Amino acid sequence: MEHLLGQDWEITPAGGATGKAYAAKHGGQQLFLKRNSSPFLAVLSVEGIVPKLIWTKRLENGDVITAQHWLKGRELAPVEMGDSRVARLMSKIHSSQPLLSMLEKLGKEPMEPKMILAEIEQQLDEEIKNHEDVQRTLQFLQGQLSEVGHGEYVVCHGDINHNNWLLSEEDELYLIDWDGALIADPAVDLGMMLYTYIEESRWEDWLAQYGLVYTPHLALRMKWYVLVQTLLSIQWNKETGRLREMKEGFHDLSHILS
């Protein structure tokens, strides 16, 4: 990596689950580098959803390195997720035709509910499946499968955790870490947002800022996808030894179902 920029640059890991991100410093300059980032990053940059992409270079071994401006800023606090700017940026993402076209060119296909449910049933181990609330959840998902269809598929982030929202010192808001991007019902992101961060009494107002009317069908779709995401989280937490978080997931299932 050093020979790409020169020996004067100090390059250190920048964290993240993939281990492909680096911070590069030289004098007063600082860059965010990523190895083998998706071509999707370029469109995200043009749309103003992630910090500006400066250059892309291919190494002799075939790896592609991207460099973005390193912005001074901070992640959003959970309480800030109700801000109208969050709703407007998510609406911009979900309505972006360039983002959708690029993911389609990269071979992504819409994630339909029946495909998602089949994947869930395959991924859950028998111990998880035998839990009472998991069985109730799977029955609900199967029972509502014919009701949650939605004709509009958009680009969804898939992990709108507050840690992935970056507010720069110039007061610019970005949504980063797009490795899990998918084409799906916008309720995938909306459900996670509302159930995790917004009081139910404010859902209608938040959705109005996003540009949607809160309807019974939207409520059903959000509940369906949040239950799916909670099941996946329970399985992942078990596999990674996060037993406290796994137990919290079971509690969340019971709460959402009720």
TrEMBL record:
Domain of life: Bacteria
Any coiled-coil regions, as ranges: 117-144
Record keyword Signal present: no
Alphabetically ordered keywords of this record: Coiled coil
Residue ranges occupied by any Aminoglycoside phosphotransferase domain in the UniProt entry: 14-215
The keyword Coiled coil belongs to this UniProt entry's keyword annotation: yes
Protein name (Swiss-Prot/TrEMBL): Aminoglycoside phosphotransferase family protein
Protein source organism: Bacillus badius
